[in-house]
Amino acid sequence: MAQTINTAVTRTDAPRKVTGSATYAADVMPAGMLHGALATSAIAVGTLARIDTAKAEAEPGVIAVFTHENLPDYKPVKGFYAGGPGSASFWPMENARIRYAGQPIAYVVAQTAAAARRGAQLIEARYETDESRITMDADDSFVVGAGEDREGMVTTKGDLAQGLATAAQTVEAEYITPFQHHNPMEMFAATAEWRGDRLTVWMPSQSVRTLRAGIAQAYGLAETSVRVISPFVGGAFGSKAGITPYTMLTIAAAKAVGAPVRLIVTRPQMYTVATFRPESVQRFRLGADAEGKLTAFEHIEMSQTSQFDEVVNPGTHMTRAMYACPNIHTEQRLSRSDTNTGGFMRAPNEMQTFFGLEQAMDELAIKLGMDPVELRRINDTDRHPVADVPFSSRSLMESYDAVARSFGWADRTPEVGSMTDGDWLVGYGCATATYPTNILASNARVRMQGTGLAYIELAAHDVGTGTYTIMAQIAAARLGLPVEACDVVMGEGDMPVAPISGGSTTAASAGSAVHDACIKIGHQIAVQVSAMPQGPLSGVDPAQIALENGILTAPDGQTQPLIEAVASTPEGEVEVIGEFRHKAMTDEMIKATFQGGYGTAGPVTPEMAMFAFGAEMVEVRVHRWTHEIRVPRLHGAFAAGTILNRKTAHSQLMGGMIWGIGSALHEVTETDKPRARFLNTNIAEYLIPVNADVREVRVEMLDERDDYVNPLGVKGIGELGIVGTAAAIANAVHHATGKRLRQLPIRMSDLV
Ligand code: MOS
Fold first, then answer.
1. 321: Cβ below 6 Å to ligand 1?
2. Rounded to the nearest whole angstrom, what is the distance from the C-alpha of residue 440 to the centroid of ligand 1?
3. Which of 26, 89, 424, 500 sits at a 20 to 30 Å CA gap from 673?
4. Shared domain check, 688 and 656
């Protein structure tokens, strides 16, 4: 049997995707389906004084127009994770209140999508407008939570003032990151169909169990009455993790008109009806002795939140884990603006915080006259600096050494502006990448037939990452089957519990449940064949029979292929439920996951700290006269435990690094601050890197073994690649030009 894990396997769903037979949420057309469209608020804060729907209702094809005044049976999700990054606590169209620009104010149902959109444009709204603003005001900011909720939001270790006072060199600086918005290729969409009290919702989702539980709770339905279907997702990255108003409005509209309704959110509306990466200010104070050892580490992160929720993705939890330091102070602050509540976006705090931390480290290295890689080496640690537990594995410096070799870091001359090529100023920069290993409980059902086929089923998701393929690989490896013989079905709420596909958790958590199921198949078949009167394993103690690569082996060396053993049973097949539980998971965490929530254990457990690490190096070229910025080379080396699929993992890391180029040089949601509006709400003006912006991107995946994180030793790689890229580019820009740019994105105009 060929090895299937840690090899490059082409996606099993690739033919379905490229031929168009993969069904996305907006592809379904239940009989009699109607089309929905949203009308959204023109102001950010105030009250709807009057909303006139007459013209919309008169539009040919329009069947119904719903506003806060006439939408029966609209049941927003309350309580169930509302007020968190997956679901805001304020729900539009419950009443006349307007709390953010672009908030839904009316829902039009029509026979065609075009008629619905025309209807939405014909809604006439009058507002009483209150003051609004988008601001990042340090004076107005506050520490997250109160009392016990504050735990971890402020950290103090040692004596920061003393650490700064005794430092040979210090760095004090603020780094600013902007609002960024999701632009997955697949638009946000929801199709809802009621049949009596039974409801089916098709929607691209990173957490079908969360969606099902939230909808069932809102409508007071048993979860068995709600089907949530999401077999394919055309890009998620956090944008499809939660429960958003457009879904609940579509469900209510379908109920009201007595027909299935499908809504495809328009690209501009995607900027206001879902979540985004909030803007942030990262304030660092670092001190180091003459040898470069950190004596003081302070990080105060201030991130934006809405007026009604205190949502934070705490980045100080990540930065404080990076480098050894006796004196640490971190603080997690929020500042309120009149927007919807922000949420998850690929590396939802790490992108912002490492833009700060890894530039601050570069600035410190320059002050110390040290190579920036050596500064990381001197401050590397095998224990978490605050929690004081060992890392389950940490290959940070191995990553730096590997990327330095592939990139040619040794060729760098440290003086600013010392490397040129004709009219191009050349700069080399580096930065650390990391991502927490979050783990959640998961189950998976595996059925193996003696004909040599296996069926794997679980409520996990392939958000474009290759999950179908890696689940098949995990089963194939243990059962001794070809990958193509392992049929994986996922993405429905009533399948065996699997956690949210967010936080880079699916391969580690759901994959471990598939792995466990395959081990159990071996146990179960061992019991059966050992009890048979005849056969190679007859009479052997079943507890002594091992399954490896599809072969059952007794202690005396007798073997039987698993397929043959399964075929010899009366049923000719065996079915089990695999489970992934980790000793660091409390009963409350397991319960939360099984109820559709986020019962995350880690990254820091009472015993260990679990993080993936990497290092990125980049060559930047800045044109001496035009200030054009180019990124001809971007190299990364990463260590994330077991790599299941060298092809899909490579793609994810490379995709993250390319998104990092976008974060550094292109992406920003511009705001009209007094009117609290997002301005460039389309992909013509919201810039992302295109092929011409991306030249050589090289990814190296290191071998790393971690026996603590989970039985597969997988840490997760979905978000790791983006972390550090923007800082590496900023550091390289400084090396080329001497300009230290502490605000994203970095533009030609900053270099004039
Ligand atoms: Mo990722 S931002 O956790 O979907």
1. no
2. 14
3. 89
4. yes
